[in-house]
């Protein structure tokens, strides 16, 4: 049985390049939206504190996520972990976007 995910080396490189480009664009757009939202909804005298806590928590949780992803990939395999992670992320994003307060933001 052949592997349906088998690609030649040059196909892998071009697909990965495209994926990294899309990821970079998405991070840029979402990062700008997040920064603008913080500046719009957080009082200016608290913006520094809120931004600091945001970065601290986001950066602080990365090693925990990496560790859990590594353990899960070791036990389940990489492909199911990527699929599960994508499904969880899509669900969380969708639930966040369905909240009425978020939908009211211009």
- Record field, number of beta strands: 0
Terminal Cα separation, in Å?
Answer: 52 Å
Quick check: average pLDDT?
89
Name the structural class.
mainly alpha
Give the low-confidence spans: none
User: SSE order in H/E notation?
Assistant: HHHH
Helix fraction, binned, reads over 70%
Rg result: 18 Å
Supply the number of helical segments. Answer: 4
Strand content bin: under 5%
Query: What does the main sheet amount to?
Result: none
**Overall form:** elongated
Label this structure with key terms.
mainly alpha, 83% helix, 106 residues
Note the topology.
Elements: H1 9-41, H2 47-76, H3 78-98, H4 100-103
If you had to describe this structure to a student in words, what would you say it looks like?
This protein has 106 residues and is mainly α. It has helices spanning 9-41, 47-76, 78-98, 100-103. The chain starts with 8 loop residues before the first helix and ends with a helix.
Summarize the structure.
By secondary structure, the protein is an all-alpha fold. The protein has helices at 9-41, 47-76, 78-98, 100-103.
């Amino acid at each position: 049985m052949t592997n349906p995910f088998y690609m030649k080396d040059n196909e892998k490189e071009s697909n990965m390049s495209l994926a990294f480009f899309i990821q970079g664009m998405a991070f840029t757009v979402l990062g700008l939206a997040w920064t603008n939202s913080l500046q719009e909804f957080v009082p200016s005298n608290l913006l520094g504190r809120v931004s600091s806590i945001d970065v601290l928590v986001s950066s602080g949780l990365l090693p925990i996520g990496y560790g859990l992803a590594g353990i899960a990939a070791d036990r389940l395999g990489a492909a199911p972990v990527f699929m599960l992670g994508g499904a969880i992320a899509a669900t969380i994003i969708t639930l966040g976007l369905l909240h009425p307060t978020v939908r009211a933001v211009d």
